[in-house]
Design brief:
5-stranded parallel beta sheet; alpha/beta; 18 helices
């Protein structure tokens, strides 16, 4: 039995305010289970996303022999992984391993003491010098070890806990924007776990009193009839062998349509599907090598809605193929779907702002976005050491307005979700109306500013006045809400501090976890001040 002290760290992946997703990271919980299976006892878990009071000093005090920082190609996660790794390298003599979805990291020059390991438990254990002779593998016998019950969660978090389970790893599709197809993240293309192993993992969570789950697969259903048979077996086992559960999955629209068993999905507890739509403009999908027809996506959304299953639609709204026509076509199709019955089931309006990030310098356009807006921060956060943007930077003024819109509504969603359970019934009804109409408000607002941009009325030079018009529209929309909930969430603390005259500096340091994670000697910039210097070059 090894006496090594191993610390596993989950870095943040989004703004600090975004706290409603209360689930542990499956990469961490399966690694935790694996290390226990091979006899390791001294395992310490730190989760910045779930433990909102976690400090860097606390991470350092356990004096681990090795710090394993989990990496996901999600949001700003890699930015925070790099900050944590470099701060640990500076502050400790411990071994540091970046583990998981590590494709993007291979393009960076990292200090020698920091190692990279793809998402493979056996390879990581070998790198740590552990005995793996008795270890089980992902596709046969690996068991989850939940850690969420060991964290100091707030009461509101405990009411929202979700288990996080993998039924597969990899993907059978070839989208060229996806980390799976850019690098060798697993040592295999596609693996499916045995149904019984998955049921055991679900039962493990159920014994802790957890009934809500996220199946953290890049593609839950798979792509072949053999995959579909295995999933039907799993769904039927969930129905017959377990108490009622609710769960969310990630999958493509075409696999939903090919599987074509929405009733069984619903009966087994499916309540939400995260669909990688990317775009509802066919030319965009072709350019992204999505191998998908827009009509298939629309049909899948309608079928989910018909069965009262929510869909979170993920877009790469600004990609290397994007132009004003593709934006308008996307908004028209979204508006069409919202005008149909039960538009609420289309989930949050994630279409309001998103952009493509590249994997190599050759994928970037020659010109940077300007120093004047906040977009350069977003690109740097999502793409360490970025040399430019993948999208057409002439769209920057429009993108900045869309960014402000998305930031405001997403922060308001957090606020309303936290307060509505303690509201009176009339207030709860008004909050629900706000949610029901939010997506359409975003579409109408985005169309208004698209028209402004196409007509030449929205430019970098007049962004201050466009910003004010945007927030006037938002304030009018908030009149739906009870009077005490109508305040703007981001105007005073964020938007009003950006003048768009020269170089926009960071105005909300704490939203970037600056109090929890040091900026010292970060690989892409050395400090907040150094980041501003980069923007000036």
């Amino acid at each position: 039995m090894s006496r090594k002290r191993i610390a596993i760290i989950r870095a943040p992946f989004t703004y600090r305010y975004n706290c409603l997703d209360v689930r542990e990271d499956a990469i961490v919980s399966y690694l935790y289970g694996y290390l226990e299976q091979i006899g390791l006892k001294n395992i310490f878990i730190f989760d910045y996303h779930l433990d909102r009071e976690l400090t860097f000093e606390k991470v350092c005090t356990i004096c681990a022999d090795a710090y394993v920082i989990v990496v996901r190609e999600t949001g700003d996660n890699i930015h925070y992984v790099l900050r944590l790794a470099n701060a640990l390298a500076y502050s400790t003599s411990s071994e540091i391993i970046l583990y998981g979805q590590t494709t993007r990291l291979h393009n960076l020059s990292l200090p020698k003491k920091i190692k990279i390991c793809r998402h493979n438990e056996q390879e990581l254990a070998t790198l740590l010098g552990l005995d793996i002779s008795k270890a089980l593998v992902f596709a046969q016998g690996l068991k989850i070890k939940p850690y969420i019950n060991t964290l100091p969660l707030a009461v509101w978090q405990k009411n929202r806990i979700k288990g996080s389970i993998e039924t597969t790893r990899g993907c059978v599709y070839k989208c060229k924007f996806c980390f799976i197809n850019v690098g060798n993240n697993y040592g295999f293309k596609w693996k499916v776990r045995p149904t019984n192993d998955i049921i055991i993992d679900l039962q493990t969570y159920i014994t802790l009193g957890i009934r809500n789950f996220v199946f953290n697969d890049s593609e839950f259903l798979g792509g072949s009839n053999k995959d579909f048979l295995l999933k039907r077996e799993l769904l039927n086992r969930i129905i017959t062998d377990l108490p009622p559960i609710k769960y969310k999955i990630y999958c493509r629209a075409d696999t939903l349509e090919k599987f074509n068993d929405y009733q069984t999905l619903k009966k087994s507890g499916l309540v939400s599907v995260f669909i990688g739509v990317e775009s509802l403009y066919q030319s965009d999908l072709d350019a992204l090598n999505k191998d998908l027809n827009v009509n298939t996506t629309i049909n899948a959304i309608r079928n989910l809605r018909k069965h009262k299953i929510y869909s979170d639609l993920s877009f790469i709204f600004f990609n290397h193929n994007t132009n004003t026509q593709s934006i308008r076509d996307n908004l028209d199709k979204i508006e069409m779907l919202l005008n149909e019955s039960a538009g609420r089931y289309m989930g949050m309006p994630y279409f309001s702002f998103s952009f493509e990030s590249g994997w190599s310098e050759s994928e970037y356009m020659n010109n940077w976005i300007s120093k004047k807006t906040y977009l350069k921060y977003d690109v740097l956060m999502k793409t360490p050491a970025a040399k430019g943007a993948c999208f057409d930077t002439n769209l920057e003024p429009l993108m900045e307005v869309y960014r402000l819109l998305a930031y405001e509504w997403s922060k308001k969603v957090i606020f309303l979700n936290q307060v509505r359970s303690n509201c009176d019934k009339d207030s709860q009804i008004l909050i629900e109306v706000w949610f029901q109409k939010l997506a359409m408000f975003c579409v109408k607002t985005m169309k208004y500013f698209l028209d402004e941009f196409v007509q030449g009325h929205l430019q970098l030079t007049n962004l201050p006045s466009s910003k004010l018009r945007l927030y006037e529209k938002i304030q009018d929309y908030y009149l739906i809400l009870p009077e005490k909930m109508r305040q703007l969430e981001t105007f005073d603390v964020h938007a009003n501090k950006i003048d768009y005259q020269d170089t926009s500096g960071l105005v909300e340091n704490d939203e970037y976890w600056t109090q929890q994670i040091p900026w010292r000697n970060a690989f892409d910039f050395h400090s907040q001040e150094e980041l501003n210097k980069i923007l000036e070059n």
